[in-house]
Amino acid sequence: YRPITGLSHAYGDVIDGPPLTRAPVNLHIQPFGRPLLVAHVAGRAGEALVAEGPQAMQDAGRELLRHAFGADMLRRVVRVEATGWRSDPWSRGSYAHCLPGRAAARGVLAAPFDDRIRFAGEHLWPACFATAHGAWLSGKAAADSLSAVTPA
Known about the structure:
- The protein is of the alpha+beta class.
- Helices cover 32% and strands 10% of the residues.
- The protein contains 4 helices and 3 strands; from the N terminus they run E-E-E-H-H-H-H.
């Protein structure tokens, strides 16, 4: 385990960085305390990288890492993975979000519908929305809630 020196768990954006000039890249640094850095590239920039293929995505990730943290950080890279979420036939690159000022809508959707129906998903967990672990936590909470309901 080799944490990124000087950084704890953080979630933020890099804007105006190469190689994606003026395209924001969302970074999730050390999720769950693990020595990981996850970069999310959306929109036209992400679509272009998916079209170029995994090597282009890996190269862009390394360049972003160098730009954000300095060339010394590249020596710490052990492995790089790339996904083409945009080309996945089940998600087609979808990502849940709320419009500014509308985050409370998550709570409305997450509220029990009746004794038999609950909604769950990556868009509903209040502390980790738009994440895979938020989806898991939301689904677990919905299942736990339903298991507590006595059948009629």
